[in-house]
From TrEMBL:
Pathway: Aromatic compound metabolism; 3,4-dihydroxybenzoate biosynthesis; 3,4-dihydroxybenzoate from 3-dehydroquinate: step 1/2. Is involved in the catabolism of quinate. Allows the utilization of quinate as carbon source via the beta-ketoadipate pathway. GO terms for molecular function: 3-dehydroquinate dehydratase activity. Substrate binds at residues 74, 80, 87, 111. This is Catabolic 3-dehydroquinase. Its EC number is 4.2.1.10. The record marks 17 as: Transition state stabilizer. Keywords: Lyase, Quinate metabolism. It comes from Penicillium daleae. Pfam families: DHquinase_II. One of its GO terms (biological process) is quinate catabolic process.
Length: 148
């Protein structure tokens, strides 16, 4: 069983980007932590990061062909802007978990609305990088990929 982890715009800058908000872990650190969790579950994990809305939408379409069973997505700024991303996720009918590193609800008003949350299986925010590990554990359970 395969799970895809997607990171949206500017998350390639993790580690140096506003560390007081997003912490000092890099995208590589994040992916390694998620891989470690995947190793303890019966799941294969793939990663994708892009700063381009269309590239993320294309990747979601490919995920359907690859029979990816769940998507963990931090849509970053696209959370608050993208009907196209919402339509892509709904269009492929792959269950997804929305993750934000920071607590979007304690930040600016424009970050309080998400175009995805009402369609997500779960929404995690404010747990830092651990949110991705928690999302993977839950996603594995959701698709029945946990060892007994
Ligand atoms: C974010 C929150 C978004 O509002 C912001 O645009 C990001 C990152 C987070 O992980 O906390 O780029 O998704």
């Amino acid at each position: 069983k395969s799970i895809l982890v997607i990171n949206g715009p500017n998350l390639n800058l993790l580690g140096t980007r506003e560390p007081a908000i997003y912490g000092y872990d890099t995208l590589d650190d994040l992916e390694n932590k998620v891989k470690t969790v995947a190793g303890s579950l019966e799941v294969a994990v793939q990663f994708f990061q892009s700063n381009h809305e269309g590239a993320i939408i294309d990747r979601i379409h490919v995920a359907q062909k690859e029979k990816i069973e769940a998507i963990i997505i931090n849509p970053a700024a696209l959370t608050h802007t993208s009907v196209g991303l919402r339509d892509a996720l709904n269009g492929v009918s792959i269950p997804f978990i929305e993750v934000h590193i920071a607590n979007v609800h304690s930040r600016e008003e424009f970050r309080h609305h998400s175009y995805l949350s009402d369609k997500a299986v779960s929404v995690i925010c404010g747990m830092g990088i651990f949110g991705y590990e928690a999302a993977l554990m839950y996603a594995a359970q959701h698709i029945g990929a946990c060892r007994p």
